[in-house]
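Q: Okay, next protein. This is ComEC family protein from Scandinavium hiltneri. I've checked the sequence twice, so it should be correct. Can you predict the 3D structure?
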Amino acid sequence: MRLPTIAISAIIGICPLFWLPQLPSVDVAGTITLGAIAFVIIARRFRIVGLTALFFCWGVFAAQKIIIPANTLSGRLLQAEVEIVAIDGETTYYGKLLRINGQRQIPAPGIVLYGQALPEKGCVGQIWQMTIKARAVHGLLNEGMFDGQRYALSLHRPLTGRFTHANRVDGQCSIRSQLVSTLAKALEPYPWQHVMLALAVGERADVPTEIKRLLQETGTSHLMAISGLHISLVAMMGWVLIRGIQRVLPCRWIGWRMPLCASFLLALMYAWLSGLQPPALRSIIAAGVWLLLRLSGRRWTPWEVWLCCIAALLVLDPLAILTQSLWLSAFAVATLIFWYQWMPPLRLQCNVIIKGLISLVHLQLGLMLLLLPLQVSIFHGMSWTSLPANLVAVPWVTLGEIPLLLAGVVLHFTGPATMESYIWLLADRLLEGLFWFLRALPQGWQDIDYRWQGIVVIPWLVIILWRLNGWTRWPASILACGTLLTFPLWRQLPPQMWSVTMLDVGQGLSVVITRNGKALLYDTGLAWPGGDSAQQLIIPWLRWHHLQPEGIILSHEHLDHRGGLETLLKTWPALWVRSPLKWEGHLPCFRGESWRWQGLTFRAVWPLPDTMEKGNNRSCVVRVDDGRYSVLLTGDIEISAEMSMLSHYWQHLASTLVQVPHHGSSTSSSLALLQRIDGQAALASTARYNAWHFPSAKVKTRYSQRNYRWFDTPHQGQVTVNFSPEGWQIQSLRDQIYPRWYHQWFGDAGDNG
């Protein structure tokens, strides 16, 4: 059996980890393993099937191994020996639990500790004895948005937590941490120190947000990660160095293997210095696979090498299939192979400089066009300025900046300080020039919504059809294919349909009401130092779903309900705002107010116009009605206000669905209110690990006893209710729209605090 065939078997076997709704149990996987081994031994003609099943079980065992700590350690108070592996800011630490209650852990589960600084300044490599309240990883889940839970599991971090006590056991920092610390001190005098440190050794935590945004908008973010581009450059420098040394050696000492091995070792050292972060680690594994294939003496095609590299990455770490960066790296390399095989550069008779420029344009054009499907799927947009930006930035960084930084690193540990300072200064000035150029480019980032996911595949199809002369062979098939790919653009939803979506924003509230491509928001989520729900989630969600917001209903003034208001108004200044706050520019939202929007009737039933209430009990309660179905949005109203509302306006409260008041607090959702609403479903927005243990078990029981179907964002993620003349339907993201094993609720089923 040929190696590429085995590689294909490994890829096919492990890929189901990405879409399995549930993992087979260990017993089932063990039975499949035994059957697959027997199949490989006995049925030689179908050995590949058994091998694929073995790789599938290998992936299942890896996934089961990572979720065991999440299910067994969650909610427990642990006496743990923790090794610090990374630090983000002053209160977030990434660690490995080496020992738990005195027992050695193999493998050591990863954990993220947050919310508290260590008693003494910590560094990577230190070992601390801690008392930890561990929690299973749990992330917000909204359609098309960043999936934090999947990301954490892909990095083998199934636990989060806080420590109540920490005592340093071993204060020795790792060798790499010490080296990076000395480099950081040496770079302190230079304005672009953070970018230089990121490019030199992969320390990107302190790169300013403005720079990260600029790199994304110009399509040059890939230059900041120590990945294949940097690893290849270092390997090439090592190869050139050894080849130069070989020129003065006797002939018997000269061979083609020595430069390859030396270049790989140099690249490995650089990858270690960069912290062996996932992109660098994948690059060095791929380089090692390529080296072994090259040393075998056989001739391998680019696709065979690509398959072997992807298979090696997945076999060594099956959970890498969950990372977006692996898909980007694999797809980018496949794009280059395809582009150069199907659209090779023109052979022109011109000087070297022009030929090099044409080759660079050809390369960047191919990457820009063929990476569109993944670019749109992951980042929900593209940069129109990425072509000119990369034409300048790629050679600027790879041929100028990186060699200078590497020289500076070497001189920092070996050479004279004067020469080192000149190198750093020149590298700093080069970055100044690069970012001046990037800032001078016009605004190029273009948000792209879900409707274009089919259309961005067209460049691939055009190239294939052109090379196969498909325009004349299969015109009808091409027309049908084009129609299907563009269908989302011209498809129109029935005007009678409308929907209500409760976004998963954590301990806050944001509900989006949509009809005919327009949207209204009831509350805008929460805010925190340096960000808010609108910036991180609501605005990207609206743009991805091609929705134009027209107004905001603000229930009350608490920050978990109005956190994203200012950001939304900056993005769409024409938005109108209704609230009971009597703030400048706000329309009133008091009992008796009603208005029409897109054929829906909105009626405010609380608070009273002359109310003296503040906070939760001044929440604007709104009933949305299409004439047949209705939704009652209640904000954070509590029992005292519920009773007052029932006594003043009880006849207008009956609704099909209700947003559970005050996140399911026991101070809300009185039995009288539930009886008066007489609804069929209740939707609660809260965070799993909240300090108030919302939603209350008593409240959930109260709704259940009145025959309400219960949905909450910790269990279901984003919840969408679709209304049509035929009826209404609830779709929850975690267990209906996008059910995956890595989206499950790990740990204690009732743990919400």
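A: Here is a summary of the prediction. The radius of gyration is 29 Å. The chain has 27 helices and 25 strands.
Q: Noted. On to the next one.
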